Amino acid sequence: MTPRRTCIGCRRVRPQDELVRVARTAQGELVLSRRQPGRGAWLCPGSPVCLAAAERRGGFARALRASVSAEAVATLRERLGA
């Protein structure tokens, strides 16, 4: 059985293979990485709706337990193509 994770945008529970992991670096940058150490946040891939909902509700700061700048979210949006 594969682990299940919750999207921080839409709050749907899915197998982790169907979601992308976002982690925060020590410099405060958000990166897409399953190997980055530390806390991670999970998003539905290619979903601008989930990304916008996570940003609007403060999902990144809550899931990562750290402040996340608007610039870091904008950079992530560009990387995701959303």
Global shape: globular
CATH architecture: 2-Layer Sandwich
**What's the CATH H-level homologous superfamily?**
YlxR-like
Query: What is the CATH top level name?
Result: Alpha Beta
Q: Uncertain spans, ≥5 residues at pLDDT below 50?
A: none
Structure description:
The protein contains three helices and five strands, in the order E-E-E-E-E-H-H-H. The protein is α+β, with helices and mostly antiparallel strands and 82 residues long. The chain has one domain: YlxR-like (Hypothetical Cytosolic Protein, Chain: A). The chain has a three-stranded antiparallel beta sheet. It has a two-stranded antiparallel ribbon with strand order 1-2. It is globular.
What labels would you give this structure?
82 residues, alpha+beta, Hypothetical Cytosolic Protein, Chain: A, 3-stranded antiparallel beta sheet, two-stranded antiparallel sheet, 3 helices
